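Worked example

This section walks through a single chain of length 147. The input is the sequence exactly as stored; nothing has been trimmed or padded.
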Amino acid sequence: MIRNNTDKLPANPIEAQGLLIKAVYKRFGKEALPIIRTICQKQGKALGLKIKNKLTKNNLTTVAKAFSKSFDLNFIEIVSISDEKFHVRGTKCPLGLENTSRELCDAVMTIDHEYFREAVNDKIELKILKTVANGDPYCDTIYEIKD
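Given that input, the structure is written out below as tokens.
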């Protein structure tokens, strides 16, 4: 039997996760957002605990540098890294959420927010200034430690 499927296959597990998230959101809409957020929060917490145990220093600079190792620098620019602030811009969403919705981006970015909260400090705030999920030309995110 020959399969002739013209759908683009995911290039990696993150893209596959994005396909699943988008399908659930498309099918159930805003009603699915609390479920997506809860699962993404658990994923972020697990990843944050894992990196926290691997690093000897758990300040924002060290964790942000470790986090950045997975970036495709063709699409993501590290604007700044310090112990107080980590600022990143990107033109492509690793999960493929382009032109979906701001609220879906907010729910999914719980992964990264929780990662930093767990690995560095629970006082880290995430600001999503722009997002390709909302149709912006790039994502602009800042992780900042607040008192």
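What to look for: The chain has a mean pLDDT of 94.
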